[in-house]
Amino acid sequence: MKISSSRFFMSAAKISGCPKTQFAEFAFIGRSNVGKSSLINLLCSTKNLAKTSSTPGKTKLINFFLINEDWFLVDLPGYGYARVGKTEKQIFEKIISDYCSKRERLINLFVLVDSRLPLQQIDAEFMNWCGENNIPFVIIFTKTDKLTRQQLQKNLAAFRKALGEWWEEIPDIILTSAEKVVGREEILEYIFRYKDVLK
Hints:
The chain is an alpha/beta fold. It is 32% helix and 22% strand. The protein has 5 helices and 7 strands; from the N terminus they run E-E-H-E-E-H-E-H-E-H-E-H. The chain has helices at residues 36-43, 86-102, 121-132, 149-163, 184-194, and strands at 6-12, 24-30, 62-67, 71-75, 106-114, 137-142, 173-175. A 7-stranded mixed β-sheet has the order 1-3-4-2-5-6-7, sandwiched between helices. Helix 4 (149-163) links the parallel strand 6 and strand 7.
């Protein structure tokens, strides 16, 4: 699939503020600073559609980007950022859980994880929550350019094994690198395959 146009559409602080349209939605989520904005910019072949930052917790709203005037790419707040207060953390968690479980136009979540790390408990808990709530998702391994091919395969095998303790069938995993333009076509092909299922 080719992206011919992409533009910021709107932000929402809670699900009641989300746009009321018939566009399919594909949302991106992950721990803070996992590379979400960089991947979104890679998909759209732009440098500043989504604001990147070295400071975790930058995304605090549900951000909607309209792609090809046909579907929404949705940037969700990062989860698990420890350096926010308890009340703010609860607000983020409600924004995320409400959107993921109640948004009728959501087709798929792309759950981003850092390929350099073993399976983190907070990622496992979120994926298990998705499974329990029948929320479809694909796992995105980010920053794969930071590893050698051997390290990447070793980490991927360990990740699959750890996830296999909860899952009989491991969800799909796509390897990506915003730096080396890896995984872009695989993600877009997935979106193209499913973007019209609600029509």
